[in-house]
Design brief:
Blueprint (H helix, E strand, L loop, with lengths): L2 E6 L3 H16 L6 E7 L23 H7 L2 E11 L4 E6 L4 E5 L2 E4 L3 E3 L7 H4 E2 L4 H13 L11 E5 L3 H18 L6 E6 L10 H14 L1 E5 L3 E5 L2 E4 L4 E3 L2 E4 L3 E3 L16 E2 L12 E3 L4 E2 L13 H20 L12 E5 L5 E5 L4 E5 H15 L7 H6 L10
Parallel strand pairs: 1-2, 1-6, 2-3, 6-18, 8-15, 9-10, 9-15, 10-11, 17-19
Antiparallel strand pairs: 3-4, 4-5, 7-16, 12-13, 13-14, 20-21, 21-22
Helix pairs in contact: 1-7
C-alpha cells in the first residue's frame, strides 16, 4: 500500500520540505511506494521578504512546473483540521469540497500571519505587507494618492513596527512617494517603534547605521511609544500625539499559523511548536513542524530560529528529509544552522549587512545593497524545474549562508 507524506503550505519551508522529501525517496528508490502531497491555496510561492518593495512583479512564482518535474502532487485548498490519532487531515479544497486524507507523516509548513492586537480602528484603517494581497492593496492606495488634493494627511505615511519589515518598508517610502507625488518637500514619513530607540531590534551598532540612514532620508523615528488608536484621519500615540495620515502601515509582529494550536505539545509566545532537533512535534506522533511554525535550536549556544526566510530554507530541507527518511530507512538529520546573518534594505540609502547573533556590521550602503538585491532576486527564488538540479541542492545539510 502506498505511503503518504502530506505537507501543509507552499512557502519557503513547505517547498523545500517537498523537494527534500522527494529527493530522499528517490535516493532510496521508493518512488512507487511513497507519494508526497502538498496542500496550499495555489501552487505558488509568495515572496514575502520582498513585499515592502515598490514593484510587485514576480512576487508569486508558479511552482507547478517544478512540482511536476520532481513528482510532487498538489491539492489546491487548505488544511482545516488535523486528527493526530487517526493520522488524517481534513482539507477544504478550492472548489469548496471537503476531503479527508490519511498520512504516514505530516509536515506543518503553513508559516505565520500578521499579529493584529485589539486596537481601535486597526482592522479598518491599517494596511499591511504581510501577504501579497495586502501589499497589492497598499500599492493601489499609494498610486491613488496622486488623485487626491494636497493635504498633510495625504503626504504623510506612518509605519508602525520597528522590526526588520517596518524598517525596510519605511525606508522604501521616500522614493516611492516621490515617484507617485513628484518631488515634494512636504512629505512626512514616520516610523513608530515601541523599543527604546529606532533600530533597537538590530542591536546597538547596527541601530546607529539605521538611524544614520533615517536622518539622511528625512525619515522621522518615534521610539518608546505605541499606537493606541487609528481612525480615518490618522493615528493616536501613547504619549497623546495625533499624526494626521491617509496611509498607516502595520508591521508590528507576526504569529505562527493558527494550525499550530491543533498540534499537541508546548508552544512559545509566538504560537510556534517547540520542536526537537529532528523537527518532530515531540508530543504528536509522526508530525513534523518547520518554517515559522517551529521554534528550534540553531546551535549549542542558546540561539533559536526566528521567523525568517533564511531559517525556513534550511528548516524545510531538514523536515522534508526526516519525514521521508523515517519511511525509507535512511538516517535522519539533526537541524543545525549556526551561522546567522541579516541583510537589511535601507531604501535609496543602501543596505546593512551584519553577521552573528550580536549583529556585527560588516558592509553598508551600496556594497550591502548589491548583496540584498542578489538575495531578493536570486537566492530565495525556487529552482528551475529540473529534477536533478533541484535535488542537488535539497540535501538536509545544505548550507544556506556560507
Amino acid at each position: 500500500m502506498t505511503k503518504r507524506i502530506i505537507i501543509a503550505g507552499s512557502g519557503f519551508a513547505g517547498l523545500w520540505a517537498a523537494i527534500s522529501a522527494q529527493r530522499a525517496i528517490t535516493l532510496a528508490d521508493q518512488e512507487s511506494d511513497i507519494e508526497v502531497l502538498m496542500v496550499s491555496p495555489s501552487p505558488h510561492l509568495a515572496i514575502r521578504p520582498r513585499l515592502y518593495e515598490q514593484s510587485l512583479e514576480n512576487m508569486n512564482p508558479d511552482l507547478s512546473p517544478l512540482l511536476n518535474a520532481i513528482g510532487v502532487k498538489h491539492i489546491a485548498g487548505i488544511v482545516e483540521y488535523i486528527d493526530e490519532n487517526k493520522q488524517e487531515v481534513q482539507i477544504k479544497e478550492s472548489d469548496g469540497k471537503n476531503t479527508i486524507i490519511a498520512y504516514d507523516r505530516f509536515i506543518l509548513a503553513t508559516g505565520s500571519t500578521a499579529f493584529l492586537p485589539n486596537i481601535p480602528g486597526l482592522f479598518q484603517y491599517a494596511f499591511n505587507v504581510s501577504d501579497l494581497a495586502g501589499a497589492k492593496e497598499l500599492e493601489q492606495h499609494l498610486k491613488g494618492l496622486a488623485q487626491k488634493p494636497f493635504s498633510t494627511a495625504r503626504n504623510t505615511v506612518v509605519v508602525v513596527g520597528g522590526g526588520l519589515t517596518g524598517i525596510e518598508t519605511v525606508t522604501e517610502m521616500p522614493e516611492r512617494l516621490r515617484n507617485i507625488l513628484g518631488s515634494n518637500d512636504n512629505l512626512r514619513i514616520v516610523l513608530i517603534d515601541s523599543s527604546k530607540e529606532i533600530g533597537n531590534a538590530m542591536g546597538n551598532t547596527a541601530a546607529t547605521v539605521v538611524q544614520e540612514a533615517f536622518t539622511e532620508m528625512g525619515i522621522e523615528g518615534k521610539a518608546n511609544v505605541v499606537v493606541t488608536a487609528l481612525d480615518s484621519s490618522g493615528v493616536t500615540l501613547s504619549n497623546g500625539e495625533k499624526i494626521e495620515s491617509d496611509t498607516i502601515i502595520w508591521t508590528a509582529g507576526m504569529r505562527a499559523h493558527p494550525l499550530t494550536a491543533q498540534i499537541s505539545g508546548e508552544k512559545d509566545h509566538l504560537g510556534r511548536v517547540l520542536g526537537d532537533s529532528f523537527l518532530h512535534a515531540p508530543a504528536a506522533k509522526n508530525i513534523f513542524v518547520t518554517g515559522d511554525t517551529v521554534k528550534a535550536a540553531t546551535d549549542e549556544h542558546g540561539n533559536f530560529t526566528v521567523m525568517s526566510c533564511q531559517h525556513a530554507l534550511s528548516l524545510g530541507r531538514v523536515a522534508g528529509h526526516n519525514a521521508a527518511a523515517e519511511l525509507v530507512g535512511l538516517p535522519s538529520h539533526a537541524y543545525s544552522q549556526p551561522k546567522y546573518v541579516t541583510c537589511l534594505d535601507l531604501g535609496a540609502w543602501g543596505a546593512l549587512f551584519t553577521e552573528g547573533w550580536d549583529r556585527q556590521v560588516r558592509i553598508v550602503r551600496d556594497e550591502a545593497k548589491k548583496v540584498k538585491q542578489e538575495i531578493n532576486t536570486v537566492w530565495i527564488y525556487p529552482p528551475a524545474p529540473d529534477r536533478e538540479a533541484a535535488f542537488a541542492i535539497a540535501n538536509p545539510d545544505y548550507i544556506i549562508v556560507q
